[in-house]
Amino acid sequence: MLPPLIQALLDPLSYPERPAEVNLRQTHISYLFFTPDFVYKVKKSVNFGFLDFTSLYKRLFYCNEELRLNRRLAPGVYIGVAGITYENGQAKVGGEGEPVEYAVKMKRLPEASILEKMLEEDKVTEKEVIRIAEKIAEFHKDAQTNERISSFGLPQIIRNNTEENFIQTIDAIDMTISKHTFDRIKEYTHEFISKNERLFLKRAKDGFIKDCHGDIHCEHISIADGINLIDCIEFNERFRFSDTVADIAFFSMDLDYHNRADLSRLFDSRYFSLSKDTEGVALLDFYKCYRAYVRGKVAGFKSFEPEVTDKEKGAALLDAKFHFHLSKLYATGGFRPALIIIMGLSGTGKTTIAEELSRDFSLIRLSSDSIRKELAGIPIEEKRIEEFKKGIYSEEFTNRTYRALIERGITYLKNGRSVILDATFSKQKHIEELKTALRGITADFHIIRCAAGDDAVKERILGRCFEKNKAGTAVSDADWQIYLKQKASFEPVTEPHLTVNSELPVNESVAAIIGKIFD
Fold it and tell me: Tens digit of pLDDT for each residue in 485-497?
């Protein structure tokens, strides 16, 4: 389904350096061709209202703008603009003749240096976040401003920007955003702008509206050869000419999105300390709400594109829903982490579902199976045969396990990080202990109970036992007899909860959970 030229550019012979391989990635507005040393970005011929790349002239103009603007924060990354031609039927980047398309040529940054990748591998330290705050604060101090740029911070322009988002997402209601969430964010946005008109006017008058980056998030930051911020907004001045707080709000929100509210708070504190912008703090959640909404909108656009693979569409759909959920949090009191219990009898699929949720939304997953063996000094993969409620499965040791599980979960919550507790929770007292520990902590709390029929559970447990004998990697020790005894003594859940039929495909169970958590 790719356009012919884009297919042609997958051929290594199209490039002057004759790379060993070429890999294609897509955004909703660009094709990116990755070679071992360089990245070539070709703009899609699209018109989303807020951008228009539908003519070759416009694409060339914005390629040059991208080069000029990004050299402010990543001077060694942006190399030039190359024309794309055909020579004897072969697409050529930088070839002779009349260009049929243009590409921005960039130095390829090491994947391991991209902040998003570093976050996934838990390699980001406070030191890097402070350096990023310092880089952005210095950039903002010297960024251009004038009367025309300042006009983009006037209340009416801000209203236009936010209203455009709502208009462009009406068709997404009940697909990527619920009607309730849509209405709540819209109401909050209108009220905030009306109540803070004087502040917005003052910000414009005092020179806080500048020619900013406009798209600072973790995928656009590299920690290699210094701090490089790439991919600023070149296609619409209205999105780049903004309050400096709107600029940092994107990065702050994206750290929250990656479940690092602890780093988000550190970044905010360091930036405002350096910029001495005391009144800007009052605008932070408003702009984080706005930024999260824009990300939800853009991810929603991608999820509907016909040329995007089904896997990418599915990921974009989850991305959109999560960002709209974040936007609602900022609109309803500010960001708060979530504690999610994934509970149920052994073999009901709770760990599979918990792992999927953890991967999709960067959530911390704490497993009672792992903690139990850690407390006992047993290797996680080692199978421990015990009678029901004996040994490390005795009531005393189980209580100790749940205390450790809850304590660790609460520690993460206090740092602003969302957590999944993956455990049977067969006794109501353990849920009560958790609720007591949650007192005084601002966090959303959800209980998800996994359920499946006996035949499905038996098949899973037998299969799991086979895998244990084969690979020695499974953590749970429960067999069929343990399951039957668990079932006989399992106490009903008295708190509000969602029961999911875990015999359904995992993606359907996850979709049901998302519907509850993100509503």
Answer: 989 999 999 999 9
Residues near 475 by beta carbon (within 8 Å), at least 6 away in sequence: 351, 367, 369, 370, 373, 380, 381
Q: For strands 227-229 and 221-223, give the pairing.
A: antiparallel
What is d(CA 447, CA 339) in angstroms, rounded to the nearest whole number? Answer: 9
For the stretch 273-325, pLDDT in tens is 999 999 999 999 999 999 999 999 989 988 887 777 888 888 899 999 999 99
Q: DSSP string of 104-131? A: EEEEPPPGGGBHHHHHHTT---HHHHHH
Residue with tokens 């990418």: 312
Phi, psi (rounded to 5 degrees) for 187: -60, -45
Rounded Cα gap, residues 315 and 298, in angstroms: 13
Closest by alpha carbon to 214, among 138, 134, 139?
Answer: 139
Strand order in the sheet with 90-93: 23-26, 30-34, 38-43, 101-107, 78-87, 90-93
Which helix or strand (DSSP H or E) is residue 23 part of? strand 23-26
What values do phi and psi take at 476, rounded to 5? -65, 140
Closest CA to 497 of 330, 327, 343, 295: 343
Residues of the chain with pLDDT under 70: 384-386, 464-475
- For residue 224, the model assigns a pLDDT of 83
Mean pLDDT of the chain: 93
Based on the number of CB atoms within 10 Å of its own CB, is 311 exposed (0-12), middle (13-18) or buried (19 or more)?
A: exposed
Amino acid at 153: G
- Between CA 437 and CA 210 the distance in angstroms is 45
Any alpha helices (H) in 362-501, and if so which ranges? 368-376, 395-414, 428-438, 454-471, 480-489
